[in-house]
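Forwarding the complex inputs:
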Amino acid sequence: MTLQINGKQVELPDNVNSVKKLLLHYKLESRIAVVELNKEIVKKEEYEKRKLVNGDTLEIVHFIGGG
Amino acid sequence: MLKIADRTFRSRLLLGTGKYPSFEIQKEAVSVSEAEILTFAVRRMNIFEEGQPNFLEQLDLEKYTLLPNTAGANTAEEAVRIAKLAKASGLCDMVKVEIIGDARSLLPDPVETLKASEILLEEGFIVLPYTSDDVVLARRLEELGVHAVMPGASPIGSGRGIINPLNLQFIIEQSKVPVIVDAGIGSPKDVAHAMEIGADGVLLNTAVSGAKNPVKMAEAVKYALQAGRLGYEAGRIEEKDYAVASSPTTGMIGS
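Prediction (whole assembly, two chains):
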């Protein structure tokens, strides 16, 4: 499956088919992060049921230092 | 006490979290400053490299209020998107609206700032817009219902201090919501200056993070803020053109 994540095109195994599995895949499950799928914010409680399909665009963002 | 919306804070200092020499120095500076509100930026996570340390994840989030900014936005639409992403973390409902309208001076875009503030207020955010020191704009923002106005002292990171104290004074006089002087603060002197003219708080970042000794500077700005505030409350003397002797002018020896 091909996804666009944070501006980068990535090839992922087909079993990485939900937001939850994607976060596990990148070992981000315990990080403070927010996920946007096709420009729509995914709530934490929906990580498991939000399925990913070929061509989806994701943004995974977090807080960094800033003024 | 600084009161923003329904929250009260013991410290009137809002501290930025960018550009510190190390996390260790940053942690100590934040702690010494006694600031309770910390600003952050929202950015893409570097998910392709594992185990990158993150300052916020090392913070005791019970102790601090997060104030994410919308830096990076050039339009109201982009700012709203960033604000919503920040809020979706479940860690904050305050936002510093920061929409840059000029790449060189980093001065805010007043039209987009007004637009974004209106949308974010409707969405239920606690809205703190970073604005220029324009008196009418500050009033228009307050009329919208923003929870504080944050006029810049001078361009972001310039360290030039308050370049238009008269405008700031006008903004402070007219505002019923807190006025937090944001951006351009260079030194403790500038912090004291802002507080002496009646600002409710000061937001700074580079003045501390870029100092040779950020921890010491964090302490210095804390005291400057307290001194300036006390001076404001005490009520300073009027300026005069000529000398007025402090010692009695009668009973001079040898007269």
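The first strand of chain A starts at residue 2 and ends at 5.
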